[in-house]
Amino acid sequence: MSNVNKTSISKFLSLVLRHKPEEIGLALDANGWATIDELIARANARGTPLSRALVETIVAESDKQRFAISADGAKIRANQGHSVDISLGLKPQTPPEQLFHGTATRFIESIRVSGLHAASRQHVHLSADSATAEKVGSRHGKPVVLVVESGRMVRDGHLFYRSENGVWLTDSVPPEYLLP
């Protein structure tokens, strides 16, 4: 299977597991899980060729670890980034003193005024290192990395969660927690 096909299938999985399961008539449970067999059947019926082997390959080889397969191997879900209302069932955790957020330079002025917001997603995504944040920001234009005072946010009562693939999640980051 070529990388182009894997990339398009990965994007398809992101669409149906994070944003629009209804595109193929897929049902996600309260925690975002879908049965792999149903996903495969509905994808194939829609004309997107999918097999268990391909799903397992994409999950295993994804550099960003966007998806997880349940311990029993029966279900799949996206690790974060949902715009549909689900609960990942994550427990609050204490993040490092600083986390990082990658964005494009064109958004900086607005972010400095209003902070970081989840927008259409359920959480703001933060990285534990600046290199990862820069990579994320470069997807949206000329990248800039913002430093978030996550330790101070926790001490002030904000909650943080860590997804299965290591991405830190929080509801929002007010501008006073962004270092210049």
If you had to describe this structure to a student in words, what would you say it looks like?
It contains six helices and ten strands; from the N terminus they run αβααβββαββαβαβββ. It has 180 residues and is of the alpha+beta class. It has two domains: 76 residues, Orthogonal Bundle (Arc Repressor Mutant, subunit A), CATH 1.10.10.970; 79 residues, Alpha-Beta Barrel (ADP-ribosylation fold). It is elongated.
- Topology as H/E string? HEHHEEEHEEHEHEEE
- Helical/strand content category: alpha+beta
| Rounded average pLDDT | 90
CATH top level label of the largest domain: Alpha Beta
CATH topology of the largest domain: the name is ADP-ribosylation fold
Rounded radius of gyration (Å): 17 Å
Distance between the termini: 45 Å
Q: What count of domains describes the coordinates?
A: 2
Sheet with the most strands: spatial strand order: 1-3-2
Strand elements, count: 10
What is the beta-strand fraction?
A: 15-25%
